[in-house]
Amino acid sequence: MTRKVADCREFPSEVGCTLTIAGEEQEVMDAATMHAVAVHGESDTPEFREQLRSVLADEKVPVAH
Q1: What angle (nearest 5°) sits at the alpha carbon of residue 51, between those of residues 45 and 57?
Q2: Which of 61, 32, 65, 64 is closest to 49 using CA atoms?
Q3: Per-residue confidence at 37, pLDDT binned at 50, 70, 90?
Q4: Per-residue pLDDT for 64 more than 80?
Q5: pTM (2 decimals)?
Q6: What is the DSSP string of 24-46?
Q7: Which domain holds residue 20?
Q8: How many domains does one find in the chain?
Q9: What's the DSSP call for residue 55?
Q10: Burial (CB count within 10 angstroms: exposed 0-12, middle 13-18, buried 19+), residue 28
């Protein structure tokens, strides 16, 4: 299973947040939503969650040498 990543550096922010959250998609959605509400003043709405889900990225796994 591919883990998902939410990276605050990908979004404009007045606080200059550098948090990255990685895990299974639902875990990332829940944690990133709580973070966005608490730190960035977002509202936990279905529209916000859909916007957040659309920008989740697959985790890049380093290739072993």
Answers
A1: 130
A2: 32
A3: very high
A4: no
A5: 0.85
A6: SHHHHHHHHHHHHHHHH-----H
A7: 4-58
A8: 1
A9: T
A10: buried
In a domain, 44, yes or no: yes
Tokens (6 digits) for 22: 């990685």
Q: Is residue 32 in a domain?
A: yes
DSSP H or E run through 54: helix 46-54
pLDDT value of residue 16: 86
Asked, for residue 64, whether it belongs to a domain, the answer is no
Say if 27 falls within a structural domain: yes
CA angle 15, 24, 29 (to 5 degrees): 40
Residues in CB range of 40: below 8 A, 6 or more apart: 13, 15, 17
Q: Which residue type occupies 37?
A: V
